[in-house]
């Protein structure tokens, strides 16, 4: 059957494939999607003369699995995990020590965000951006004063309109906080309780999205749910009715840092890129463009007033009440989370 | 002399094909089978001891539910493909030869674009602010936008869109071989249109139907990016579970076991296909 062969060929095409070309001076940067303005990459290529091959991921888990699997193949020179994954990867010997003599501008960083417990003396990581995960509403569809906390997501009237990030830890963080527990709980009973609570929310959930969490709001699919503050910032440019709300149970806080995988092919370029981003002007450009907060204090002085005073990007002390920083919960607790996460998403 | 020339060519091709099969089909599958009997390890992904635990956890009602729901969505997809594909293939085999080539060409053209990109395009069509909704509202047919995206229906539409050619091509192949004389003979012997269809056309095209069903049903259960994009990461397929095990949960042995189960389901389908073909062959001889 010749035509069956055609179908077979078509099937091969369907699978698709992607290759990456290796060249002499290349930096392979592995980053979250929509987390670096193209202008920064262009300027780095222009000014430093190193070409950037840019690849993205949408969860710490995917990034970690990829780096772990490709440990020996030197596929990536730089990645941007959240703090709890920096800790995990450092412990598992997946990271190369940062050579601080090659880094310029480290002193620009906020002293409150360096030398933290997850990576003492920043031996393996350099902070890139920090941000929060909070609530978003479309104020055209949802009354503004009505939503004040995570618990409001459970309100019957929002059935079929709720969006959650496609991030296991964040979704469970919400469930745990609503019950009054820590978002970094490792207690199996608390996690199970949070799972039970979240199953009640599931009929309301329309979609999970960690690719670009602002999109379901912009597309008109959802009116209320979770969002990252930078996404809320970017979304508001296209959709003025998109409001970012700091939930009273406490917002989720995270910090993402540059790390160099152990077997990076071009660590020199990685160091150069980190120094490049640490320049106040570049850090300011990034924060201004994608709306996450820069840990670079020198950059903060360069920000235009409307960005520096934007509560979505730079929360006030009041906004940060009850806020909780994401931490590593260990492999054992992760297994429990994983199991319930799968049940949550497949159950109906 | 001709033989002497052809022999090395023949051996060459055979060696190539066998190397291909051994290196790219057999070896990876053996690795997957091997992995499915090992134990999860947070550091190195896989470790000893050898165990059947992964297959036992597959019996969990949760995964059975996913499998059944996946099978249901795959079956609906297959059925829709068949209902559209069957008359399409028939009509295709009836048009003039030059046109047939053009139409088949058009059928294959979408494959030149990555299926992921095409799925995103579907999303733009079906979104609440998407083309279909704005179009219908503009025409005054609806007042409130239809909620099409992130539903079971959206996933099935996506699957049908991606897999329809795999149903049409084998069906076209059998319709193309269907000899007009047989239909005429049936008419001459007094059978009506319906009777001819049931007793002549359907049995003769059955191998194509079965081939199409196989080419659609199993991929339909594995195309994980369709529920991810059009289903809002809900209405998950077996393919999503496998992907999640490998990428997010990092439980490779369990993911491997799930993949093996899907392969076994495929094998079962192929086996019944062969059985039915043999039976059809016997009937034809009688």
Give structural notes.
The complex is a heterodimer of chains A (348) and B (286). By secondary structure, chain A is α/β, with parallel strands linked by helices. Chain A folds into 2 domains: 26-129 and 255-313, D-Maltodextrin-Binding Protein, domain 2 (3-Layer(aba) Sandwich), CATH 3.40.190; 131-253 and 322-346, 3-Layer(aba) Sandwich (D-Maltodextrin-Binding Protein, domain 2). Helix content of chain A is 38%, strand content 17%. Chain A has helices at residues 2-15, 38-48, 60-69, 83-91, 168-178, 188-201, 215-218, 229-238, 267-278, 280-290, 297-302, 305-308, 330-346, and strands at residues 26-32, 51-57, 78-79, 95-96, 126-138, 162-164, 205-208, 224-228, 242-245, 252-258, 260-261, 324-325. In chain A, strands 5, 6, 7, 8, 9, 10 and 12 form a 7-stranded mixed β-sheet that branches. In chain A, strand 1 (26-32), helix 2 and strand 2 (51-57) form a beta-alpha-beta unit. Mean pLDDT of chain A is 88; it is low at 1-23. With 286 residues, chain B is mainly α. Chain B has one domain (53-285): Orthogonal Bundle (MetI-like fold), CATH 1.10.3720.10. In chain B, 78% of the residues lie in helices and 2% in strands. Chain B is built from 12 helices and 2 strands, in the order αββααααααααααα. In chain B, helix 3 crosses helix 7 and helix 11 packs antiparallel against helix 12. The model of chain B has no long low-confidence stretch (mean pLDDT 85). The chains are: A alpha/beta (348), B mainly alpha (286). The interface between A and B is large, with 43 and 45 residues.
């Amino acid at each position: 059957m010749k035509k069956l062969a055609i179908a077979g060929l078509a099937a091969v095409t369907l699978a698709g494939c992607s290759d990456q070309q290796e060249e002499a001076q290349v930096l392979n940067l592995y980053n979250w999607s929509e987390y670096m303005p193209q202008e920064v990459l262009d300027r780095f290529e222009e000014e430093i003369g190193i070409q950037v091959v840019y690849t993205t991921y949408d969860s710490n888990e995917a990034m970690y699995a990829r780096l772990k699997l490709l440990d020996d193949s030197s596929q990536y020179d730089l990645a941007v995990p959240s703090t709890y994954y920096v800790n995990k990867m450092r412990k598992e010997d997946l990271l190369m020590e940062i050579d601080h003599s090659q880094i310029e501008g480290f002193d620009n960083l906020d002293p409150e965000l360096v030398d933290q417990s997850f990576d003492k003396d920043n031996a393996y990581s350099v902070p890139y951006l920090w941000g929060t995960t909070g609530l978003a509403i479309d104020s055209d569809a949802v009354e503004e004063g009505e939503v004040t906390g995570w618990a409001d997501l459970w309100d019957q009237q929002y059935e079929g309109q709720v969006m959650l990030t496609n991030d296991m830890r964040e979704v469970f963080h919400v469930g745990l906080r609503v019950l009054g527990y820590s978002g970094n709980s490792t207690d199996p009973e608390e996690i199970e309780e949070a799972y039970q609570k979240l199953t009640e929310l599931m009929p309301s959930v329309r979609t999970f999205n960690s690719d670009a969490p602002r999109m379901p709001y912009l597309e008109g699919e959802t009116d209320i749910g979770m969002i990252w503050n930078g996404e809320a910032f970017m979304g508001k440019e296209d959709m003025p009715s998109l409001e970012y709300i700091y939930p009273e149970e406490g917002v989720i806080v995270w910090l993402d840092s540059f790390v160099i995988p152990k077997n990076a092919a071009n660590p020199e370029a990685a160091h150069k890129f980190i120094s490049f981003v640490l320049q106040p002007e570049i850090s300011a450009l990034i924060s201004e463009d994608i709306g996450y907060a820069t840990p670079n204090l020198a950059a903060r002085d360069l920000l235009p007033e409307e960005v520096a005073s934007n509560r979505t990007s730079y929360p006030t002390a009041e906004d940060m009440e009850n806020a909780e920083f994401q931490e590593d919960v260990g492999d054992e607790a992760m297994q429990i989370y994983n199991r319930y996460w799968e049940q949550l998403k497949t159950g109906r | 002399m001709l033989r002497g020339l052809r022999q090395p060519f023949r051996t060459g091709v055979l060696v190539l094909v066998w190397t291909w099969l051994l290196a790219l089909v057999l070896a990876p599958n053996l690795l997957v089978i091997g992995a499915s009997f090992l134990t999860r390890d947070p550091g190195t992904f896989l470790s000893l001891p050898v165990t059947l635990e992964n297959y036992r956890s597959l019996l969990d009602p949760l995964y059975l539910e996913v499998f059944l729901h996946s099978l249901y969505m795959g079956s609906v997809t297959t059925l829709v493909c068949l209902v559209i594909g069957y008359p399409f293939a028939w009509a295709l085999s009836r048009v003039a030869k030059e046109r047939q080539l053009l139409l088949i060409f058009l059928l294959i053209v979408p494959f030149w674009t990555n299926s992921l990109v095409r799925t995103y395009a579907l999303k733009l069509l079906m979104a609440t602010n998407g083309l279909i909704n704005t179009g219908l509202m503009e025409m005054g047919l609806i007042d409130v936008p239809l909620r099409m995206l992130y539903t079971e229906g959206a996933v099935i539409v996506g699957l049908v869109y991606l897999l329809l050619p795999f149903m049409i091509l084998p069906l076209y192949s059998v319709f193309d071989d269907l000899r007009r004389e047989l239909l005429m003979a049936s008419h001459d012997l007094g059978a009506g249109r319906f009777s001819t269809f049931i007793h002549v056309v359907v049995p003769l095209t059955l191998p194509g139907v079965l081939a199409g069903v196989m080419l659609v049903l199993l991929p339909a259960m594995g195309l994980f990016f369709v529920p991810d994009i059009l289903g809002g990461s809900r209405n998950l397929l077996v393919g999503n579970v496998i992907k999640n095990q490998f990428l997010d949960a990092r439980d490779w042995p369990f993911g491997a076991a799930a993949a093996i189960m899907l392969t076994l389901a495929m094998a079962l389908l192929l086996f019944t296909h062969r059985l039915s073909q043999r039976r059809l062959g016997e009937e034809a001889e009688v």
